[in-house]
């Protein structure tokens, strides 16, 4: 490993009475990384963030920040700051006083000049220079979000923790803020840990994604790795759209497994784990890995039931006898008239990649260390 991780979890478990919120997590986040914790509601994302921030203590294991064991260190002594989902600005204070709030609590006391200059710097970082005297209710939702960010950045934390910070914003503003957050992270170069249950947000913003399920890390990797090479059925299903087809293992050929689908079609697929003859599996076919043709060229034939035109691409729901509805995504070539209409018969083939077959029993998350990613990223 090249550098001391900014954050490290060693065998961290958190229990609330009978509920195990986080279970045996090992994780090392390299310096200056943008990490997303992604997973469904209740999988333990916020709990992980709160243990980094010091608002919760692990029941077992240790949390390190920049190599220091944080056991017994209260939140205000940790070199981290957190932006909460409900960012709770003080409505009776103006923008500058909201941002400067933490600085005023600092002991030993800072001079008013120091406070004003640091608050000004933080406001500049989030592109709100000149807004210092505005009241909170005189700001848009996105601007309020930026005040919350400035407030968290003002005391120069080593790590910024963000718990679903964009959840309250509408889609357009959310997309703008996603880009701004990414730029901000690159500019100031500190580690950002972003909690989200929005897989698009996680994939588009972060250097690496930590997919969680049931209190465990199920996969850790760069966004393209998570999308292209999901570790198990849960990740394949949770991250991105995919068709999951049920089938049984009919044979093996080299590294590939032959899977007989419900309609008798046999397709070759890659596998994650050893699969037995006759074992029930799910095969994942990404919509964009399918190709559509008017002539019979692929393993499936179907009827277009629905088309969603998206400009550069079109998404089709295609009914395939014995299989069900397949989702396919095709590029729209302007002027080529290659759009299919509802009711039209189409043949479906494979455009790219090899389908992935997963054992139906879910891999409930062998924890992984991120050390190999430390090298890739730093
Ligand atoms: N203070 C608490 N007391 C008891 N159980 C808790 C407490 N905080 C969290 N939990 C439980 O721990 C589990 C993980 O909760 P956590 O808030 O970390 O989930 P999350 O992944 O952030 O979910 P969401 O996306 O809904 O915010 C849940 O089952 C939750 O009910
Ligand atoms: Mg949460």
UniProtKB/TrEMBL annotation:
Enzyme class: translocase
GO molecular function: ABC-type polyamine transporter activity; ATP binding; ATP hydrolysis activity
Gene3D superfamilies: 2.40.50.100, P-loop containing nucleotide triphosphate hydrolases
InterPro entries: AAA+_ATPase, ABC_SmlMolc_Importer, ABC_transporter-like_ATP-bd, ABC_transporter-like_CS, Mo/tungstate-bd_C_term_dom, P-loop_NTPase, PotA-like, Transp-assoc_OB_typ2
Keyword Protein biosynthesis tagged: no
Annotated ranges, domain ABC transporter: 7-239
Keyword terms: ATP-binding, Cell membrane, Membrane, Nucleotide-binding, Translocase, Transport
Domain of life: Bacteria
One GO location term (cellular component): ATP-binding cassette (ABC) transporter complex
Protein family: Belongs to the ABC transporter superfamily. Spermidine/putrescine importer (TC 3.A.1.11.1) family.
Main function: Part of the ABC transporter complex PotABCD involved in spermidine/putrescine import. Responsible for energy coupling to the transport system.
Protein name: Spermidine/putrescine import ATP-binding protein PotA
Organism: Mesorhizobium ciceri biovar biserrulae (strain HAMBI 2942 / LMG 23838 / WSM1271)
Gene: potA
